[in-house]
C-alpha cells in the first residue's frame, strides 16, 4: 500500500513538474513576443529574409544600362567611395557630396544618380518611390542591394565638412522639436530607455548607445505587415505621420538632417540590414 502511495505521489510530482515547465515556457514565450512581436516570425525564417528578392532586383538595376544617357549606376554613381563602389558606402552616409554641394542620404543620392547620371525622369521615379503590391519601387530595391553590401561594416560619420556638422545639429533640433496637434516630438516616443506603446518596445534614439545602434543598423527593412522593403526615409516619414506633422517631402533637408542625427548616434554599430520588422 505504501509502495502504491509513493508511486502515485511520484507520478503527481512528474505531472506537476511538467505542467510547471510548460507554464514557464508559455510565460517566457509571451514575454518574448511582447518585447518583439515578430520574434516568432523571424524564428520561422531563420537566416532567410524576403528582402533577398529586393536585393537581387536592386543588383540588376545597379548594373543595368538605362536612361537616355545610356549608362549604368555601376559606372556612373558615386556613393562617396568612388563610382560604382557599394561595399561599405551606406555605413558612411549621409555625407557631403561636392558635385551637388549638399549633404545627402542614400535615397536622395540615388535619385541624383538616376536623374543626372542616367537621365531618368524624376517625377516617374518619385511616383513609385514606395512599392505597393505589383507596383515595385526601384529606389527600395537599389537601397536593399546597397545596404546589404555594407553588412558587418561599422557606421562612421566623421562630420568633417561644415555642412555635415550643420546637418547633425539641425537633425538634433528636429528630433526634440514638439509640434502639431498632439505636441509630439521624436523624443516623445524615443527619448528614454524602457518605453513602450502597447506591445511595441520603443528604443532610445536620443543619445548614442546600443538602442540607437541596434535600431539604425537594421534599416532598411522588410516590413511583414506591408510585404515590402522600406528605407529609413520611409520610416522617418511614417513617424511624421504619427506625430500629425505635414507629410515629409522625399529627399528634403529635414529627412536628411534627421537621418544624420540618428546615424551619428548609431556610430560604431555594425550594419545588419536589411532587417525584418513588424
TrEMBL record:
Main location: periplasm
Lineage: superkingdom: Bacteria
NCBIfam families: thiosulf_SoxA
Compartments (UniProt record): Periplasm
InterPro entries per the UniProt record, alphabetical: Cyt_c-like_dom, Cyt_c-like_dom_sf, SoxA
The family this protein is said to belong to: Belongs to the SoxA family.
Catalytic activity: S-sulfanyl-L-cysteinyl-[SoxY protein] + thiosulfate + 2 Fe(III)-[cytochrome c] = S-(2-sulfodisulfanyl)-L-cysteinyl-[SoxY protein] + 2 Fe(II)-[cytochrome c] + 2 H(+); L-cysteinyl-[SoxY protein] + thiosulfate + 2 Fe(III)-[cytochrome c] = S-sulfosulfanyl-L-cysteinyl-[SoxY protein] + 2 Fe(II)-[cytochrome c] + 2 H(+)
Cytochrome c domain boundaries: 166-278
Enzyme class: transferase
Keywords recorded for this protein, A-Z: Electron transport, Heme, Iron, Metal-binding, Periplasm, Signal, Transferase, Transport
Protein name: SoxAX cytochrome complex subunit A
Lineage start: Bacteria, Pseudomonadati, Pseudomonadota, Gammaproteobacteria, Lysobacterales
Complex formation: Heterodimer of SoxA and SoxX.
Signal peptide: 1-29
Name of the gene this protein is made from: soxA
EC number: 2.8.5.2
